[in-house]
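tRNA (guanine(27)-N(2))-dimethyltransferase: structure tokens wanted.
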Amino acid sequence: LDGVVDSEKVKSNNLDVKIPKSELEAEEKGMEEEPPRESDSNILDVSSDYPRDKHISIQRHLADLEKLADLREDEKKPCPLCPEEKFKACYSHKLHRHLQNLHWKVSVEFEGYRMCICHLSCRPVKPNLVGDQPFSKMGAHYHCIICSATITRRTDMIGHINRHVNKGETESRFITVRAPKSSYEVVKESATDVQVLPNHSTPQKTDSYYNPKMKLNRQLIFCALAVLSGERKPIECLDAFGATGIMGLQWAKHLRSSVKVTINDCNENSVTMIKENCHLNKMKVKLNIKEEDDETTGDGEENSDTIEVTKMDANVIMHLRSFDFIHLDPFGTSVNYLDSAFKNVRSLGIVSLTSTDISSLYAKAQHVALRHYGCNIVRTEYYKELAARIVIAAVTRAAARCNKGIEVLLAVALEHFVLVVVRVLRGPTPADDSAKKIRYLIHCQWCEERVFQKEGNMVEENPYQQLPCDCHGSMPGKTAVVLGPLWSGALFNTGFLRRMLLEAVQYGLDEAQPLLKTLVCEAECTTLKHFSIHSPGDENKQEECGVYIKTTNTSTDSYLVHGKRKSEAVLRGTAKRPRAEHSAEHPPFYYNIHRHSIKGMNMPKLNKFLNYLSEAGYRVSRTHFDPMGVRTNAPLVQFKTILMKYSTPTYVGAQAEGPVHLPGDVQMGEGIPAAAEIKVEEEAECVEDDKSAVAAAVLAQSYPTHYAAD
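Answer:
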């Protein structure tokens, strides 16, 4: 074009933009005359050492935009946001109207800044052929103040900014910016100090996420690592998602030379904060080989106070190195990292994962559970245990793909997370044995009875026959659904839980001790009053996959196995023995006593009801999944029968509480007047009528089809 003069390239927002020389001189001159303002140095509360300047189309006031044009009455000036081909140089009054009407009025406002429309060649546009010559169309666009993206339409720009706001994203997500140290807070947990940001509890608004509600989760993982450190020393452990590094710092600070801790995170700000927290706790930092600029401890300086800090993707570091203990705690589901975790984990090592995608696991977003875990679920009374079995099934499939099997040591599902801790068994035989424990579950939607499908590939004519209830025969339509695939094995290892409890007592972890006691009782399916930490023969009752080997009944000795080859030999020897602990395995799932309470009846206290079930010959315990849940091997029919037997009727005129006895034969004295005899007989008849009415109502509620006609 004839009007284009020699231009030079100006780098703006990492894009090479060709701006005419006259515009460049006007822009530089305007920027020199413009006094520096403190408000322009920060965008979205970013520190003053912000590494890049905002685009010239983003300004606070119209006067700032006019200063870029350097308006003067006696000279013609070009528009700083339009190429000379689109808007030629003009006098100040015309340029002022142009800036106000074309750029400022159609701008997008965000936190005091205006993102004006830009007509420069920042955004590439396909050329159009006009005759024989290509005609380059200048595309109008906006520059995002947060991520520097170029958006064409104003409505799209507004939606783009709203999405950033809804996600809580700031410029620190796209550009490395360190917040001032004055904004840090120091939090102390388990004798470990960590620096966190003021918005540390919101993972989408900060790079260093710290949740104080997950303290119990961190204590349980520490106990599991402490048990493993007693089996072999030293062990290499990885915290794949460090954030503030508090979990790895607790490992290194309390276990000392027993562990070699590696804290990893893929975010630069988190890695910097982890290093600062290590120095805050007087720990030396050993950086990975790629980081040559930072401080290292040296090759020969390996001691108990050294923590290795890496900046990698979690999948990459687990593919490159082998570990004895791996903990995964991403924001959401962990299924994307399971294959890498089981790829190089050592034999008899431990993999623990914390899943916080409870909306999908607790059947609030069933389509997400199907997408992430390949599992079909519905909302049930035992939905928390269902979530734990879903995660374990995903872990089992990932381990089997790497020719490894698992033994579940611990499965906890609470309000905010699902924690699963498994031991890894190397070899195709353990992998096949673990894969066989993944089954489908048949769930009755009327009475909530449930049973795992039988093993085998043959199709049954009537799958409803596997359910103990008769709802299919008495209710119209289809009454049951198939859930899964789920883990059908045990959720706890009693011996490992007892050792975790001893570690919790030793290190003074008060929050974990009550939960571990409940888990031990739940694993043994016994009540709390029969619980004892130092019960004789504990090691003889449990086998921990090559760690605690089961001995004969006459001997109560147990021993630790160190090393890979010896443990595999012991495993081969114990595989030939009959596993008697299968019969003592805790029953799957539990019943909620409120869910099966009978209308019009006062149910007994939970502890008394547990005694009634135990006296009836059933194994029974409470469960951590539900405070009103009862884990028992009693069928649902017997569960309801015993509950109804010891429930007392609730009367409208309730004179007194307690069990109501039938009046039977009334013994009358000879000296009672006739009027009194009639009154006593009428009261007895009323009591008997009320008892009959309540009993009929109970039977009609439990068996509606048989008593509908009556």
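The mean pLDDT is 76. Residues 350 and 443 are 32 Å apart (CA to CA).

Cheers.
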